[in-house]
Design brief:
By secondary structure, this protein is α/β, with parallel strands linked by helices. It folds into 2 domains: about 5-170, Aconitase, domain 4 (Alpha-Beta Barrel), CATH 3.20.19.10; about 175-203, no CATH class. Helix content is about 30%, strand content about 15%. It is built from 8 helices and 8 strands; from the N terminus they run ββααβαβαβαβββααα. The strands form 2 sheets. It has a 4-stranded antiparallel β-sheet with strand order 1-6-7-8. Strands 2-3-4-5 form a 4-stranded parallel β-sheet. Strand 4 (about 95-100), helix 4 and strand 5 (about 115-120) form a beta-alpha-beta unit. The radius of gyration is 20 Å and the shape is globular.
């Protein structure tokens, strides 16, 4: 998993509440267990017309937001089903951080496990960040995870809360497997002792 330390990038405003996981990645694209290749289908029902052409009114189809790394939305982002494909699609598109007043619980957990930082901030703060984002490439936001602040183009720093363990894992690029592999020497030592004492388990 790619570490998340400090991110400075274009933020895309998505002034919608209750954006569920089916809107993030429609069910018809869930035929793969690969974590790559889903970015093209992110928000497919909003990004594309019925004939497959791009909807020019959708924010991620407009410059500079095609290169957005931060998404600012309204309440209950990622509600709905528990599909892990939702953070996979966001990450494959290039989104590393989502800022919203609240998130679906499972989406919030899945995002952290996949290297996406979900930040909860009050609605009025999210609205200010959206106004910043509407300025386009001239209004990049900075997210400093170590210091736990979002920095506006004006220089104003907005603090946010994050679970201490999840912060450690993100800063060090550790998913669940990576966290386990930190204990590899102890695991190897246990297996060596067990193999000597109970070799029939390894036959």
């Amino acid at each position: 998993m790619q570490a998340f330390t400090t991110l400075t990038g274009i933020a895309a405003p998505l002034p919608q509440a209750n954006v569920d996981t089916d809107k993030i990645i429609p069910a018809r694209f869930l035929k793969t267990i690969a974590r790559t290749g889903l970015g093209v289908s992110l928000f497919a029902n909003l990004r594309y017309r019925e004939d497959g052409t791009e909807n020019p009114d959708f924010v991620l189809n407009r410059d500079p937001y095609r290169g957005a790394e931060i998404l600012v939305a309204h309440e209950n982002f990622g509600c709905g089903s528990s599909r892990e494909h939702a953070p996979w699609a966001l990450l494959d598109f290039g989104i590393r951080c989502v800022i919203a007043p609240s998130f679906g619980d499972i989406f919030h957990s899945n995002s952290l496990k996949n290297g996406i930082l979900p930040i909860r901030l009050p609605r009025e703060v999210c609205d200010r960040l959206m106004e910043d984002a509407r300025l386009g490439a001239n209004a990049r936001l900075t997210v400093d995870l170590a210091r736990q602040v979002v920095i506006r183009p004006t220089g104003e720093e907005i603090p946010f809360e994050v679970d201490a363990l999840r912060k450690h894992l993100l800063l060090n690029g550790l998913d669940d497997i990576g966290q386990t592999m930190q204990h590899a020497p102890a695991i190897d030592g246990f297996e060596a002792k067990q193999k000597a004492a109970q070799p029939w388990l390894y036959a």
